[in-house]
Amino acid sequence: MRLTFLGCGTSTGVPVIGCDCPVCTSTDPKNARTRSSLLVSIDSKDPSRNIPRNILIDTSPDFRTQAIREGLRRVDAVLYTHYHADHVHGIDDLRSFNRIQNEEPIPCYGTTETMDSITSAFAYIFSTPGARNQQLGWKPNLTANTFDCPFELFGTDIIPVEIKHGRATVTGFRIGNGAYLTDCSSIPDESKELLHGLDLLILGALRNNPHPAHLSIPEAVEISGELKPKRTILTHIGHSVDSANQSPVLPEGVEYAYDGLSIEL
Ligand SMILES: [Zn+2]
Ligand SMILES: [Zn+2]
Ligand SMILES: [Zn+2]
């Protein structure tokens, strides 16, 4: 399995429009963060079909540029963490993958609350099937699917992990020995039970100071120390973090994500 950070920025992206702070004006590519999304490439279990299956976690507003940057040529499924705009609004660009995948529908998965919100916000996609419509023109061909327990995609277990995001409950995912928990302000004890023995924990951490809907960096470091994964990578990072210059400094075993970072698990 290969995990690639398509984006690791908070909802505004970094640089933030109109901001002249040192991070937003930095020329180091590690300080340029598109909106958060992860690509999970799973090796095919079918020897006659040796191309990997690509699962996207979220379709950020920057999905088009992320897909072009990574040379992405296939999307087999999309998992949604929640319905906030920075995690969903690139959804229309999935139509390009329908086109190169023989117009086959791409299945999208989320909780009932997440999919209800996405299907009503993007009714033009989900209210009519197919990739083309006389009134709507060329649109994505997607199916909406819900989960309330672990399920399997392409022979791999997908374990939804409920986490708190301010007052909301959103979804993290454990896939094999990796877990992706973005937009997290705390992890309930019963969800921590699902997060033992990880090789890689990806955790959202917005900034050094506390925030009501996101973990701060010190809070994320504390959770990493509690769950003891082999490696922890912080994502959904705001513009007060200068990850190019490692400020704030992180302890051993915890690091900042950057766009394009790719890890074999
Ligand atoms: Zn977000
Ligand atoms: Zn800034
Ligand atoms: Zn959010």
Structural class: alpha/beta
Please identify, by name, the CATH architecture: 4-Layer Sandwich
How many β-strands, per DSSP? 16
Radius of gyration equals 18 Å
CATH C-level label: Alpha Beta
Strand sequence of the main sheet, in spatial order? 8-5-4-3-2-1-16
Shape: globular
Work out the helicity level. Answer: 10-25%
Give the mean pLDDT. Answer: 96
List keywords for this structure.
single chain, about 260 residues, Metallo-beta-lactamase, Chain A, 7 helices, 16 strands, binds zinc ion
Question: In words, what does this structure look like?
Answer:
- This protein has seven helices and 16 strands.
- Helix content is 18%, strand content 28%.
- It is globular, with a radius of gyration of 18 Å.
- It is an alpha/beta fold and 265 residues long.
- Helix 6 links the parallel strand 12 and strand 13.
- The strands form three sheets. It has a seven-stranded mixed β-sheet. Strands 9-10-11-12-13-14-15 form a seven-stranded mixed β-sheet, with helices on one face. The chain has a two-stranded antiparallel sheet with strand order 6-7.
- The termini are close together.
- It has a single domain, classed as 4-Layer Sandwich (Metallo-beta-lactamase, Chain A), CATH 3.60.15.10.
- The mean pLDDT is 96.
- Bound molecules: zinc ion (3 copies).
- One zinc ion binds next to loops.
